[in-house]
Amino acid sequence: MKVSLRKAAALQEAITEAINDINHREFDTLIDVLDEEYPEVALDTEQEKFLKSVEQTMLLMNAKAEIRKLVGEANHTCGINTLLANMKLIENKMELFHSLKGYTPRVKPSAYQKKITRINNNSDSILGNKSVPVSVITENTIDTFSRKYKEVSKEKRELSEKLLELNVGTHIQLPDEVHKVLQKHNIVS
Length: 189
Hints:
With 189 residues, the protein is mainly α. It has helices spanning 5-26, 39-78, 80-100, 109-121, 139-169, 176-184, and strands at residues 2-4, 171-173.
């Protein structure tokens, strides 16, 4: 069975759900033998069910692992791994530029010169506040950060589109035994 990488991801999720269904529904290891005519037979029967559940869980886990291996190989071959590394870099740049564009811009020299003059003229008074904090970042620099944020946002959209194309257009061949396990659990037809 040949599936796209996107379909393979959905299959892995479906396998996880199937494993959870087995674990939550069938792993009851205690039974009441009070009314059992042959308690040992009932216990053995329930143990068989339990062991079949464990076996089915293991088959599903193996199928999921096989799909993961195939997806990993395909991701490497078609360039998705490199694309994801670039995507992470772009996301980090977006975070950086988003925070940098939020800084307060530097005020005009006339604004802080007035404060300096006022403090210097009142040097013998007890005002307490003798500082003039001014941002070192100019309005132009903040505009540059905003522009760069938009640029990397566009790059991210383009990479996301490329990633989608690769996930839909790249296929893996599932082994027959994996296909049979998926069919048995009604994950595929």
